[in-house]
Amino acid sequence: MAIAKAERLMNLALCLLGTRRPLSKRELRGSIEAYLEAGSDDSFNRMFERDKDDLRELGLVIETVENLDGDTGYLARRDSNRLPPITLDAEEAAALGLAAKVWQQARLAGAASGALQKLRAAGMPEAEDAYEVHSALEPRIPVHEAAFEPLMLACRDRRPVTFDYRKANSARPEQRQVEPWTLECWRGHWYLAGWDRERGAERVFRLSRITGKVRSRAGAFSAEVPDVVTVRETVESWAGETATRTARIRLRAGAGYPLRSRATAVRERGDGWDELDIPYGHGLDAWLVEFGPDVVVEEPADLRADVVDRLRAVAKD
Question: In the predicted model, what is the mean pLDDT of residues 275-285?
């Protein structure tokens, strides 16, 4: 079925691009075999409207023209559907090649690879690959969450969504109604920044805590979308990147190396534990829970209480 639809869309696109005058629905139906096989006029009309919308979503500019006799005609002018020449220098080609490698673990891998091949076929210079097979370093952005792709599309199309979300200190998920702004990857985890309609405020959601399916909702955004820099700063702040305070924790000797790398001071206690000073913002309590019994928060008291609440929520599960 997918092959049949792709062939039908290609035939429609070729008809619209190849004509010098607008073609009516009747003429298009008589030119495309799949439309001739449509059982009724209603079936053909529904098929044609879906195909026309799909081609427009793929980027084809289709004009609707009213003929002198009152019939509606369609055509896709070649000058409106021709991309300008693409010229890239060696550095730009290298940046695109690197970006394509980053998405090799995601559903975007095929699109990124195909786009790169088309650019190279059009004359894009071959850049020296600094991340060849023999290199020990390879750029990767892991994307394992099922929510990534529907949220990425919702951000692109500015569509509100609903999903069930389980906070780290909650035993059960809650439904959220969100106007998605952008996705950000921080410390190997993906986060969604957007407007929470029920709370009437900006919120950030970790994709690994989204349960079930992400469902799109009709309608326009009710809140203004901020610029990219503001959203990125919000994600970093909620995820713990922006440090506003300092925590003192006890860490079991030989454990918690990621915590040690962020510490501004490490003191040996001599009892199998070390004492660390860690600058933090939002999100440190969730991170500390991941280290289980190897971490004890000494101060501040509110951070220690947040960690205890999260541990109790996990124990209830």
Answer: 83
The burial class, CB within 10 Å (0-12 / 13-18 / 19+), for 67 is: exposed
The residues near 266 (Cβ < 8 Å, ≥ 6 apart) are 260, 274, 275, 276
> What distances in angstroms separate CA 246 from CA 131, 224, 277, one per listed residue?
38, 34, 6
pLDDT tens profile 95-126: 777 666 656 555 555 666 666 666 666 666 56
The amino acid at residue 196 is D
Q: How far apart are CA 153 and CA 214, in angstroms?
A: 11
96 near 89, Cβ under 8 Å?
no
The Cα–Cα gap between 129 and 138 comes to 11
CA distance 180 to 151: 7
Residue with tokens 């970790």: 206
Q: Are strands 273-280 and 161-165 parallel, antiparallel or unpaired?
A: unpaired
Tokens at 153, concatenated = 């599309």
